[in-house]
Amino acid sequence: MLRLGLTGGIGAGKSTVSRTLSELGGVLVDADVIAREVVEPGTQGLSALVEAFGEDVLDENGALNRPALAAKAFGDDESRAKLNSIVHPLVGRRTAELIEGAPRDAVVVQDIPLLVEGKMGALFQLVAVVYADAEERIERLVGQRGMPENDARARIAAQATDEQRRDAADIWIDNSGAPGDLDDVVRSLWADRLVPFEQNIRDGVVVRTHPRLVSADPTWPAQAARLMARLALACGSVAVRIDHIGSTAISGLDAKDVVDIQITVASIDAADALTEPLRQIGFPRLAHITADDPKPAYGIGGEADPAVWAKRIHGGADPARPVNIHLRVDGWPGQQFALLFRDWLQSTPGVVAEYLDIKRAAAAAAAAVDVSDYEGAMTAYLNAKGPWFDRAYVRAWEWAEETGWSASTSA
Ligand code: ADP
């Protein structure tokens, strides 16, 4: 199962997108529909509202009179909180029921107008934002839905900004063009990303790409932040901390388009306890590096006990977002070095330039390997970086001593 959160400003075209996704086979869970359903006549929800706000929230047919409820419940914070405490749990329970009832291989599409405002992105494997410029949306709302212009403007002003939506979006669906244009975009999203992603989650397949450098992407940190929020939710208190590490965490550095994230845990057993929760949200385990495996090239001579180099690695099932998730034990040298290396580079531009040269040479070595041979290409890539890394390990720790760096002050 894959869960997609679908959102966008009012009038952007969310309903149009969710209709297409549902035609393609998505299991639609519509927050607005559920919010109405749980307070229909005869429901426990409606009785609770009457009990809290009085009989006059009902119309002459005994159904909910929304304007009357709004007048009572939106007047002050306490009433609003009371309303939310009645409706939110009911919506949550019904949503959970619908998701549990969906087939194992479902792509569940949750249409949630206020997903960004409610900071709900971490609940989904992917968040898609449907976008259209505010003036365009006002024109559509007034012209096609007959909404008074002032209402349309007021609603848009009360919602999240485009920038907040951009930070939350894994997928940005531009609906500025003709409605037909949207159709093709949504169809390829379905076929090229959602369906294979869902299949990969079920099969525990990790997406890997041939090592190749791309220009530094300024959205890498925001992409990492979204991944980290999802990981944090799945790990709960088992994660001591979660950090964006590696080259994509260094601003301006060209890198492989693979986001590295480190989950710090208290023990290797704790890392193993995360195997299943991470697999379920699309990060299957990739490798099992034990004390018996050769330790990484860097650090030679640094640590006497090879056991402290044990770690677990997970990858990502999303065809459009390769990731490496490193699970390492708090205080062990690999865990410390990942944070140190990032901070050393971030504050030492000369080293970044050096590292870029090494990465280019490594990418050239990988490019010489046949594209079908992922392992071979990765080995060529890592071997080319090895000698520089051995030195870097020592240099970074010298820098740490000079500057008084510690992992607890980084992040
Ligand atoms: P939302 O669900 O995001 O509030 P809708 O999908 O209901 O938005 O779209 C708002 C209005 O704009 C609807 O009347 C819809 O038919 C219309 N619409 C959607 N996409 C386009 C488009 N690309 N061009 C013109 N009108 C559109």
SSE map:
Elements: E1 2-8, H1 14-24, E2 27-30, H2 31-37, H3 44-53, H4 66-73, H5 77-101, E3 107-111, E4 126-131, H6 134-145, H7 149-158, H8 162-168, E5 171-174, H9 179-203, E6 213-214, H10 220-235, E7 241-245, E8 255-256, E9 259-265, H11 268-273, H12 275-280, E10 285-289, E11 311-315, E12 323-329, H13 333-346, H14 349-367, H15 374-403
Parallel strand pairs: 1-3, 1-4, 2-3, 4-5, 9-12
Antiparallel strand pairs: 6-8, 7-9, 10-11, 11-12
Bound molecules: adenosine-5'-diphosphate.
Search tags:
411 residues, alpha/beta, Rossmann fold, Beta Polymerase, domain 2, 2 domains, five-stranded parallel beta sheet, five-stranded mixed beta sheet, 15 helices, 12 strands, 50% helix, binds adenosine-5'-diphosphate
User: Which compounds are bound in this model?
Assistant: adenosine-5'-diphosphate
If strands are numbered along the chain, what order do they take across the biggest sheet?
2-3-1-4-5
Shape from CA axes? elongated
What do we call the CATH homologous superfamily of the largest domain?
Answer: P-loop containing nucleotide triphosphate hydrolases
* Continuous helix count: 15
- Uncertain stretches of 5 or more adjacent residues: 297-302
Q: H/E series, N to C?
A: EHEHHHHEEHHHEHEHEEEHHEEEHHH
Overall structural class, as computed from helix and strand content, comes to: alpha/beta
Label the CATH architecture of the largest domain: 3-Layer(aba) Sandwich
What is the beta-strand fraction? 5-15%
Quick one: CATH class of the largest domain?
Alpha Beta
CATH topology of the largest domain: Rossmann fold
**Mean pLDDT over all positions:** 92
> Radius of gyration over alpha carbons?
25 Å
**How many angstroms does the end-to-end distance come to?**
33 Å
